[in-house]
Amino acid sequence: MxxxxxxxxxxxxxxxxxxxxxYTAETGENTTxxxxxxxxxxxxxxxxxxxxxxxxxxxxxxxxxADVASxxxxxxxxxxxxxxxxxxxxxxxxxxxxKLVYNGKYVLVTASGxxxxxxxxxxxxxxxxxxxxxxxxxxxxxxxxxxxxASSTGNYLTxxxxxxxxxxxxxxxxxxxxxxxxxxxxxxxxxxxWSAAMNQLKSFKYNFNCDYPDLTQVExxxxxxTEAHDLFPVYNENALxxxxxxxxxxxxxxxxxxxxxxxxxxxxxSVSSGPxxxxxxxxxxxxxxxxxxxxxxxxxxxxxxNGLKIYKARWVLQNNFSYPANDSFKQCK
Length: 333
Prior knowledge:
By secondary structure, this protein is mostly beta strands. 6% of the residues lie in helices and 38% in strands.
């Protein structure tokens, strides 16, 4: 009888402690986020985060969202734990980019293995994924819900008809040749797609054909240097960040002129800016093409975690250059 009472008391005590620590009986998981900065609690959700960075993180083959204040990763998506078929997991080796779309509620993911995916943040559901191949470096959401990606190996852009019921095997794709495909950005104001190709910045007109998406080149502007890499909107400006092997530039959309940015130069994989209080952040490789830290324009650490292999990093902020306010999920019909 004494042994029985001891077991009951022990179980009750353990259950009470688990409840205090944030364990759930349904999942057996600790629901209390780890705190890595004493006295600073991580936000309870991505939506509640005041200053977060989204990372293309290759050590664990994932997209991660990190809270700067607590130095904590508060959200992640990994193809191995998502609704991605086993034979398609290889498409998502070396996550290469992650962009917030649809008012910050979804993530557009690309990987060097050739994969492109659209993921909902709240439940981490992969609503659409497909294969572009050719070492995909970035993708963009088009106004009608279709997607375009850029592949460096093979030198092309890939247009996808997004159908959330028929993928990844039954997907309409259209390829457009482009040199050294590394980036794509939609220009909402001018209704153009921009892509920097080696030493040229190109613009394209979209045909807005849901079933058969296509692009027609409008303009090609010579840019200095070679191997253009990242292209991303400057926060709340009518301008684009542009990086190559040697420089970081701003491209003014009104004048169509480049000026050297007042940040660290040379071999910058990604650049992102924000409002007051948000420094320009860069990803500058420490080895190969990745780093375990995100730095500001002067080289100061903004976020770091030993051992990570971060390829690109961007602020979790609304992108008004590319998408209308309160943009919501859509697909062509």
